[in-house]
Amino acid sequence: LAIEGLQMGTLPRQWRPSGPNCTEVPDWQVHEYNANLWIIRESGCTNYEKPFLYLFFGENKALLQDTGAGKTDVDVLIPRLLDQWAKRNNKPVPPLLVVHSHSHGDHVSGDKQLAALPNVTVVTAKPEEIEKALNMPGWPEKLGTIDLGGGRVLDAIPIPGHDTADLALYDRV
């Protein structure tokens, strides 16, 4: 199936299991769905929740959805991935915007580490903070957009239910 403008990618046949020997399992599994969307999974050896993080790249900015669970080294991993993408594309390292699917601990644990880095903006997973940062007055009735540049626009869709700060992203490409 081909849709004009859609950047198709591939999914792994399976994600690595947690064990039985955690010394053989990396803390993070990074899968490049396509050149500008990377799916990151935290190992079950690091945290039993095994959360997924999503790293989107546009021409001018990158966006990370979620920051992991438990004690993470996401502040080491994400800058390395940003640098890798920049070198591959012969571009400067893009600034990073961090948003969350919701506010539970298995999605926000790396916030403090990432917020301490240069060129990183972390949007706290609270409706009033999301509303302000993403220009979404009237949460949860209004949608927002996140322009990453180069035609890469993500729609921010409030979906409270599981949590008051539930946020879905729709990638137009």
List keywords for this structure.
173 residues, alpha+beta, three-stranded antiparallel sheet, 4 helices, 28% strand
Our estimate of the beta-strand percent is: 25-35%
Unreliable spans = none
What structural category do the secondary elements indicate?
A: alpha+beta
The percentage helix is: 10-25%
Number of strands: 9
Helices and strands in order:
Blueprint: E1 28-34, E2 37-42, E3 52-57, E4 62-65, H1 74-88, E5 96-99, H2 105-108, H3 111-115, E6 120-122, H4 127-133, E7 144-149, E8 152-158, E9 167-171
Parallel strand pairs: 4-5, 5-6
Antiparallel strand pairs: 1-2, 2-3, 3-4, 7-8, 8-9
Describe this protein's structure.
- The protein is α+β, with helices and mostly antiparallel strands.
- The protein is built from four helices and nine strands.
- β7 and β8 form a beta hairpin.
- The longest helix has 15 residues, at 74-88.
